[in-house]
Amino acid sequence: MKLTYRDIPATPSNRKDTLGMKENRRVELICSEWEVYKPIFDKEVAKLPQPDEMTFKMTNGIEDAIVASRKIVIKRGDDDWATITDIGTTNPTYVWDWTNDETGKYPTDNVAYTAQLFVTTKSGAVCSSDPVEIPTLQVSTQERIIATGEGKTKEDYSLILFPFNSAEAGPVNERVMRDYVYGRVFQTSDIVVTGHTDIVGLFDHNVKLSERRATTVKNGIQKQSGGKFKSMQVKGVGPEQPLYTNDMPEGRFYNRTVHVQIESTISSATGE
What we know:
By secondary structure, the protein is α+β, with helices and mostly antiparallel strands. It is built from seven helices and 13 strands. Strands 3, 4, 6, 7 and 8 form a five-stranded antiparallel sheet that branches. A four-stranded mixed sheet has the order 10-13-11-12. Strand 3 (67-76) and strand 4 form a beta hairpin.
């Protein structure tokens, strides 16, 4: 390990901007070993309810003019799961995504739901429907791939980071794109490449910088794939649509990136 000291980093941030000056007061760890730089992936099999959503069909059973409010009360077993109140007084349907009121999470087992509609009149009387049992089935992402046949995979990559005010990929970014992005491009792929910047500097300059960064990645994909993909959109949004907060130096660092979205048919992406 070698320690060096310098007034400013080798690639400094804007020295005329207060945010840039703060960024320049930093310690940098520089290493040539790919095992240190390479991204770490955490893969898991997600479990989702099937079907994706529940559509409630409702009738009041009394004159609509005397209805003050309605709600749907949902339970799983003996436990309250969700209470839906934003269903209006006359709407015939409501689409729900199964999530719990408190945690916002999906269920993790196959316990059935029970749903019941409550209608409150303007005089304060409450009418209720018969409870309806809703069975559910948990489906893993792998099972869903098998079930959907020619469905599509959607992949997002924000691994490509650029030095301040630069659109040059550099050896680390080249390795990231080669190991993680190029191999996921197929003839059925629709690709969206979006360049980003932080908020340091002039807006117009940053928009053009983000466009150059996106073009760098586009050129790499074009070259490595030989143009064998379905479509590719390329754009630069500058400091707009930040992926991370610009209030912290780390956030600004991660916003100097290109975001790549790849959507391919499952048969192409899985090789099946």
